[in-house]
Structures are given as C-alpha cells and as structure tokens.
Design a protein that fits this description.
Blueprint (H helix, E strand, L loop, with lengths): L1 H14 L5 H27 L1 H6 L5 H36 L4 H14 L1 H20 L6 H34 L6 E8 L13 E8 L2 E9 H5 L11 H8 L15 H16 L6 E6 H11 L2 E3 L4 E3 L4 H8 L12 H15 L8 H11 L3 E5 L2 H9 L12 E2 L1 E6 L10 E11 L5 E11 L8 H13 L5 E9 L4 E8 L6 E9 L2 E10 L2 E11 L3 E3 L5 E7 L8 E8 L4 E6 L5 E5 L2 E10 L3 E9 L5
Parallel strand pairs: 1-4, 8-18, 10-19
Antiparallel strand pairs: 1-2, 2-3, 4-7, 5-6, 9-12, 10-11, 11-16, 12-15, 13-16, 14-15, 17-18, 18-23, 19-22, 20-23, 21-22
Helix pairs in contact: 1-2, 2-4, 4-5, 4-6, 5-7, 6-7, 7-15, 11-14
Length: 615
Amino acid sequence: MRAELRSIAIQVREEGPRLDASSLAKIRADADRVRARHARIADALAGDPLVGLARQLPGLDRQVRAADDLVEAAGLLLSVLDDGLRLGARFVEVRDQRDGASTIEGLVALAADAQGDLVAASARVDRALGLLDRIPDDAVGPIRAARDEARDQLGRYRPVLGQAVEAAQFLPSLLGWDRPRRYLVLPQDPAELRPTGGYIGQYGIVVVDRGRILEKTFNNVAPLDAQPDLPYVEAPAPLRNHLLGTRAWRLGDANWSPDFPTAARQAEALYRLESKDERIDGVIGLTTYAIDELLGLTGPVVIPGYDVTIEPGDATFGILAATRRPLVPGGDRKAALGVFADELLERLYALPSGRWMELPATFERIRAERHAALWMTDPDQQAATSKAGWDGALPVTAGDELLIVEANVGPVSKLHLVTDREIDVDITLDTAGNAHGQLALRYNNHIQDEQANEWTREAARFLIAHQRRFHLGLYIRLLVPLPAQIAEVRLEAGENPIGGLEAVGEELGRRSFEAYAIVPPGQATLDMAWVTPGVVERAADGRWHYRLSLPKPPGRLADPLRVTIHLPPDMRLVDVSDPTFKVSEMAGTVIVVREAPFRSDVTIDLQFEESPPGV
C-alpha cells in the first residue's frame, strides 16, 4: 500500500498542471486499489481473533494501538486524496476550456467552491498528524517506518495545503467573485525611493469581475495633483521641510508611512478628494521590482507604438526611460505606462498552463520581499488579506526591533537608481537587559563613477541628461522600541557634510529617530547609535533570551546586510535561530554574526547563559 501511495505521489508531482483526464483516471484506479488494501487491514485489526488477543497482552497492546493509529491516519489521508482527485478533475475541466477569459473565471469559481473541501482536508491532515505523533518510538519496525515516512511527506506538503486554504479564502473575493471589485493601483518607482517602495508617479483604476478585467486605465498623477481650488491638506513636517514646502499633500506623495495600510488609507483619501471618485474597494501598491518578477513569467514585453522593450530585471530603468518624453509633442509623457500595463496583463492572462506552477513561487517572492501589498476598504476582506500576508503591515513583534525607513527628498532626483546601500547593524547586550545599538548606512552614489559597471554607467548618463542633479537628498527614520534613547548621529559625506539628526518622536507605536542627509557623488556613511532597555530577558531557568526583528525595507532589492551581536562578557551561546550564523570569541566576549542579502524580513533569536567556571 505504501509503494502504491508513493507511485501516486510521484505521478501527481511529475504531471503537475499537465495532468489530464486519462492520468486522473489512472490515479483514481490506483487509489481504489489502495483503499481496498486499507479496508482489509482495518477489518483485520477490528475483527481478527489473534489481534483481539494481542490487545489484551502487556507489551503487544501498545503495538496494536500503534497500528490502529497508523491505519486511522491512513484512512484520513485517503479521504484527502479523494478531495484532491475531485478538485483535480474540476481543474482539468476548467484548464482545457478554449476561451482564456472563461478559464480565468472558471479558476476563480474553482477557488471559491474549493474552500470547504480544502478546509476539511486541512483538518483531516492535522488529525492524521496527531495520530502519527501518538505512535511511540518503540513501535515495531514496519509501523515506525510507515509513521516516519508519512510524517516526512506531510511535513513537506502540509504548508502547501495551508497556503491553498488561505488562497481559496482570499483570492475569490479579491478577484470579484461575489461582486466586481474596483482598485486604485499605485505603481511605485524605487529610483525615487519612498517608505512603501517609491514615488507614485502614476495611478491606475482596475475593475475585476469574477477574474475578468472589465476596466483598466493608468494616468499621470501630476495633472490630478495639480488641479486648482482643491482643499489644502497639510503634509507631515519632514515632507513640508524637505520636499513640498508650502504645497499641499497630494496623491503622488501619499505613501509617507512605512506601514502600507496606513499609507493606503491616506492614498485613498487623497485620491477621493482629488478625483471625487468614491467607488474604491482597495488599494494595490507595487514597485517595478514586482513587475520584474512578472516579466520573468511572460518574458520581455514590447510597448506597442513606442519601440521600447521592457526586459525582465530592467523594469525600473526601462519604464523610467520610456516615460521621459511624450509619444507626440504636447502629449502625456507617461502614457507609455498604461500601454505597457495593458500588454503585460494580456500576456499574464495568456500564460500557458504549463507555466501556472510558477505563479505561486513568483507571487510569494513578491510578497516576502515587499514588492507589492494590498489594502481593502472592507474590514473582513482586509482581515483575510492580512492573514494571507499581503497587507504590507509592519508586524507586531516582541523583543528588539530595527526598521529603516528611507525617502528620496529634496534635491529631487532619481539617484536611487545608481546609488548602492550597505547596512551594518552592531548590537551589544548587557545583563541589565539593555541592547546598545549602532547602525551604519553606507552609500555609494555612482552618478560620476567611471569605474561602475556598464549598466550603472548607462543609467548615470541617462540621469545626467534628464535631471542634472548629482546629490541625493535623503530623509531617514530609524524605528525602534519605544523605550529607546538616541545616543549619537554622525554623517560622513565629503568635505562638508550636510545633514544630521532632525527629530526624535513616536510613530506606529515605536520610537523614531529622524535624520536628513545629502549624499554627494561617491561614498557617504550615516551612523546612528541608541540604547533600548528591557529587551534582553532572563528566564526562570537562568538563561537569557534576545530577539531582534528587522523588517525588510520596501523598494530595495537585496542590500548587503551584516548583523553583529555581542553577548555580555563571560556568556556562552546556547541556541541561535539561524544555522548560517558565524560564532566567534574575542577578549572573553562571544560574537554572533549574520551576513546575507536583505531580501525579506529577518528575525534573530538568541539564547545564552553564564559560562561554567573554568570555561
């Protein structure tokens, strides 16, 4: 029976979305044979006299109970297989429709209808895992081996099933299953970095009904923001002081908060004020890095009528170059974005079924790397969005936290396109419960760097031709736990550095240290130091615990990140959450170092204790 189940699993894995009716029929026949074998085993356990005798004998009774648990778990998993075969048959039916729009609508319907089956299947798998965990390690070899194999397989596939449940609860409503959904779409340009990903130079309206796109329009934000006689909305002080001056707060600069739900609510309110459009169901924010991921599925996209091709991995520069000049004199120079969006969406909807298996991994990268987020006006739908991890909210964390919020401000430029950033975090712990933090942000502005790589030199030449600004203006906020106190801020940037500490405040339930800096061509470093009390905790067993959370900044790809944590003197490390950490000792102090690209949120957990005498 185990061999036949292995064969079924291999066939399903190899066929994937190419599964057809004949393959399903074969799998169903194999499943029927497995079910017949399972019934015979279950009958023997329930009615065989020798098994009944074994249940009464000390020692053997434990083995029979282990067999009971294994067989009951197998029955639950066979029911899950039945659910999967029913869903698979519907999937094949929908996939093989000739009309692409009907295929999308059918997939949305399948996801909506599958919710009950997927929730039930998830509950059965959890019950089966509980039964397998009850089987003792002294069970006889065949039972123990079957237990271990089943647990190993379920450990791999249970998260996938959980994601399917979340998707079935989240996607149908998002795609307009119960009624059409109307979204405000905010493309964000990380070449001009802002807290949720980049400057909002364009905005779009997309209407979705049962998976079909009924309406999609994209427009330059400047005419909307520049309308006369609009009510004055006061911007946050840093935006007034370093970018807007006396101008009102408008949609293009709405995303000043690093918490996407907060920024999206502000964007929706400003859009409603400027457009008088009250019919928004949600706000979608995405950066050009999300577009790069989608281009990885579709391949290069030619913008019709513009003789411009947007390549995967080059969307930021490609879209920037395509929107510098209008197609016709006096026209909207950003009209190319709408044409490109139409073409990209058409290519995504026409994606062959053989590529569908790539979609979950692609969207998971977009989500985990904070290249896109969604906020819904309906609280229940927003709760589902949050549960699926797509809300872009700053997580509520225990322990220590460090969030770097960076915005491109005056002098206005697109210099983030050619400016690298390295992040160095150094934390020293003490037994009084304090964490002494130091952050070094190291910038390299390549606008005049003839030694840079060819792509950067090309981008720099383009920027020099179109903006003639060489200095990058930055407003940087460091968000840490509320009790924290600033110790030092220092800027090293050329012979006459411009910038420094601007404010100490409170934001999103955190302490905020805020600095302004101008980064000239070449290298510059902003150093900040602070102390956070009460984040090193001692447990009842005498061990110390420290947790550090670093949410990944949106609008950045993978900044080099180095985190160094110094334990208090005469302590030894007991456990660390990430096996890639390097541990060393210097002058009696244990030092833990993590070096890796900053692609997604980072959480570091350390446990340490006093070293025994003589160690």
